[in-house]
Amino acid sequence: MRLIYFAWVRERIGKPQEDVELSGEVETVADLLRWLKSRGEEYENALQYPDVIRVAIDQEHVDHREKLGDAREIALFPPMTGG
Amino acid sequence: MPDFEPTVRIQAQDFDLAAEVAKLTAGRTDIGAIVTFLGLCRDESGRLAALELEHYPGMAQAEIARIANEASERWPLQGLAAIHRYGKLRPGDNIVLVVAASTHRQAAFEAATFVMDFLKSKAPFWKKEHQADGSEGGWVDAKESDEVAAARWRG
Questions:
Q1: Residues in chain B closer than 8 A to A56 (CB atoms)
Q2: Is B24 touching A (CB cutoff 8 A)?
Q3: A67 is a domain residue
Q4: How many domains in chain A?
């Protein structure tokens, strides 16, 4: 599964994307954020306040209760500031 | 169902407001109202040298298309275009353009506002500030008021 990061999430984690293998216990977006946060200081720093992190699965916004299912691409980013 | 596909473009290069309006009205005599919104990069009283706009390429296009399609189903429009730039933009540069065409003004005003309200809080773009004094700039914080503006269209 490919994870993509944007803006300060990308800067704090220190890479724009990565491929990860998830265990069966990581079922939802909230599980994924919790699992990522335990991977090291840079992840902890980026995901310190998980509630503010916005998530898209295969380029569509989802909330944190959403099941990952057979997602190909999951993006994590801060609230958007376009326009 | 509207009989047109909204125009949505995500691009680094500049756009021309008059040219985009002309594209929507070319050869038509049924359009009675055009509303445009043009968003510009501002310098915050001289504090900013530039804004860096980061985006999520595939999703930015898809999300603005979703918003534009919803607007074209909700209002009787004859044309709709939304263009958003990315990359490093200087104060005075164009950032975003929305053009809504309809028979009467109300639909065009409301549709243009709707597209901008949702674009602000749903389109995957992020602004980073470059300070005029050369010091490290930060990411622009999302505004609560933008969420509120989008929420008022629901229900």
A1: 56, 59, 124
A2: no
A3: yes
A4: 1
Q: What is the CATH number of the domain that holds A16?
A: 3.10.20.30
ipTM rounded to 2 decimals: 0.96
- What single letter denotes the amino acid at residue B152? R
Using one digit for the tens of pLDDT, what is the confidence trace for B100-129?
999 999 999 999 999 999 999 999 999 999
∠ CA B39-B41-B45 to the nearest 5 degrees? 125
Total CB pairs under 8 A between chain A and B:
73
User: Which fold, B7-151?
Assistant: Aldehyde Oxidoreductase; domain 3 (3.90.1170)
pLDDT of residue A62: 98
**Domain parsing of chain B, residue ranges:** 7-151
Based on the number of CB atoms within 10 Å of its own CB, is A55 exposed (0-12), middle (13-18) or buried (19 or more)?
A: buried
Q: How far is A40 from chain B (nearest CA, A)?
A: 23
Q: Is A42 part of a structural domain of the chain?
A: yes
Asked which of A11-15, B40-44, B134-138 is least confident by mean pLDDT, the reply is B134-138
Closest CA to B101 of B110, B91, B89: B110
- pLDDT score, position A71: 96
Residue A19 belongs to a domain: yes
Mean pLDDT of chain B: 95
pLDDT at B1: 61
Residue A82 lies in a domain: no
Q: Which of B59, B121, B128 minimises the CB distance to A75?
A: B59
Asked if B55's CB is within 8 angstroms of A81's CB, the reply is no
* Element holding A2 (H helix, E strand): strand A2-5
